[in-house]
Request: fold
Amino acid sequence: MNAGFEDCTILDELAGELNEDWEKIFDRFNRERIKDGNAIAELALRNFIEMRDLVADPQFLLRKKIAAHLHGKYGDAFLPSYSMVSFSDTPYHIALRASDEQDRLLDRILKIQGIEQSWDRPEVDALFEDWKKGLES
Reply:
């Protein structure tokens, strides 16, 4: 639904920019929007798999708790993919890439000995800072 609303907004902007020349509007829309269309399809598939297979998996639930903790501690420097897709105007192809990058970080965090008991630890902060620096370079 969000993607549909976003499509309407983009089409409206293009209509103003291209003087309602619908052939040009649809041509440009189709060229520029395809990467987000493909990304939202991939994100929807991943969400389906999560809902179907993972919602009762303790490791998955821990991963979600740690992601929420990172968002609470670091704000928009760590915005979970669901929040990017549902509550921001982050383009879907960027949200997909960010989700993959976050997964790599969470994989590293979950390898920390005893992470199940406590995730507000210096090792988590250090991994986060390294991860963030890697994104900036």
